[in-house]
Amino acid sequence: MKKKIAVFTTGWCSEILSQFLSGVQKALKDSGTDLFLFLCYPTYVDKPSVKHGELNIFTLPDLKQFDGMIIFGSGLNFLTELEKLISRGKQAGIPIIIQGAHHDDTYYIGSDNYVATRDMCRHLQDKHGVRKIIFLAGTVDSFDSEFRLKAVKDHLDEAGHSEDLVEVFYTKWENALANKYISDYCKAGRPLPDAFICANDGLAMETCVSLNANGYKVPEDVIVTGFDFIDDSQIFDPSIASVDQCFEPMGHECGNLWLDLTSGITRDKSVVIPCEFIPGESCDCYDFRNSDKVRRRVGRENFSNRTMTNYFNRKLHLIDSTILSCLTYQEFKDDVNRLLTENHDYEGDSFHILLDPNFGLSIYDSNIKLRKNGYSNYVEVLYSTEDGKEYGEAQFRSRELIPGYNGEGPNHLYVFLPIHEADEAYGYLIFRDCLDKVANHFLQTYQNRMGLVLDKFRHSLSLDLLNKRLIELMRKDPLTNVNNRTAYEDKEKRLQSEINMESNLKFAIAMFDVNSLKLINDNRGHDAGDAYLVRACRLICNVFKHSPVYRIGGDEFVAVLDGGDYEKRDELMAEIRSRMNPYTDSMPLPLDYISIACGMAVFDPQNDRTVQDIVKRADEEMYKNKAEIKAG
Asked: In CATH, what number does 485-631 get?
């Protein structure tokens, strides 16, 4: 059995994340270890409910089932989530390695941002005479961003020019905020600094775009630098002066660190990888690297990437049209499964879509709610293949994470992505061995589109069903004025949803079958039979005063016992049986004659998975009682 490492981060730093994971995989290639990447895409400007829905994927794994955990801190700047993950890792007793952020009692691996940033500052000062600087930071709680800012401040302090740091603006890692800041800055007529130093390459490229839109050129009017040395920044015009943090070597060292820790080898708590400042066109340096060579390479790759993107978009449109054309939940399940069975070239032979069991139930009843914290104990298998083998069960235990996983064979990378609407969990996706799809944001696009189309389908079908309900019979039985079968079926769904949610549920189901109805109908007429049913129903309601009663057939009734009736269920069943007339199959009968066969079953959370499990036992008890009544 292979070992397992849980990896947690967001996917916005996709290129450096894929480089880092590639390095980890290379270090672990001979170790028999699978990586389980729990990935999401929250932003600081998201509504809290949306952010919660994304980050909920981190709650999925039981870390006691893992042999270690890695947190890619360069992509995870949510301090509260970081603390939660560290706490869970400590409780599980597994090695915790954090990339890019120091934390007590964990192992740290990172690059020497500080030295490289100071090298950048010296280059800007000595080569280009830079004095006045504006620093576009990430977030206040980002270790990487703050450490780079500290390096800038320390350089200026030592040079006796601390006042040259004109301003620090926190972008929250949002390019749109950087764009707005630059635009507002220029429109205000403020003098440009000598340089904008940006906390990553994305902010640097956005700064160049915004400056150009406001009539300024880089580097002619102002210098711009970035951080991370990603491919996009290398082919950008101008190519961004940046710091290569060597993420693949960092990942390789991270993998080696974990191997040593699991082998009992003592290691320092902190491992720092050297990184390098690389001048570029954005700081007016054209002779340090051949940016045109990189641009030509990327240009050649664009054709195949464009072809893949076109195919990918067609697949997404096909999924959309397939789901939105379905008129029932069962049709939805069948059609999606058939679509992916026939064509899963993009998804691969190991791909899974797992839905919360209440997703389908909530379509038919708006009172049924979906989980907002964590995932249900059992999830519904919408589509699942592992190594091309289809998973045969309708449900799957979510704590086991991957249907069909056996922990054998070559090493793999599994990527888990949440499906949700706001903070309601719809389920999750699993891709395998897809670093290229992490790097190009295809996974994020797939996840986002799947969430949108499922939400649209759910609400569309719910509205359609609601309209149909408006023209159905009222929920009350017209003869007895108790709830009818439609109301009972809704009650069953709500009970099932609570069973799925593993709530502290206590209830019992009592089944009733009215005896001798045919005898009365045949001898006294149907009016007398109707009056007999009303008397029988009134008796049931008088005994079970605090429980909903349903007429589910001609002579069949059901009561769902909870609260006080549940606590006194045995006493009440004895009472109703004591108030019956003796069974007879011949006339005449007393005018107030009532004979009812009764059976009851109590919900057992240890063994009952469905409402039908309880109904079946109650029905069996009722028929036993009917036999006893007839036997006299």
From this structure: 3.30.70.270
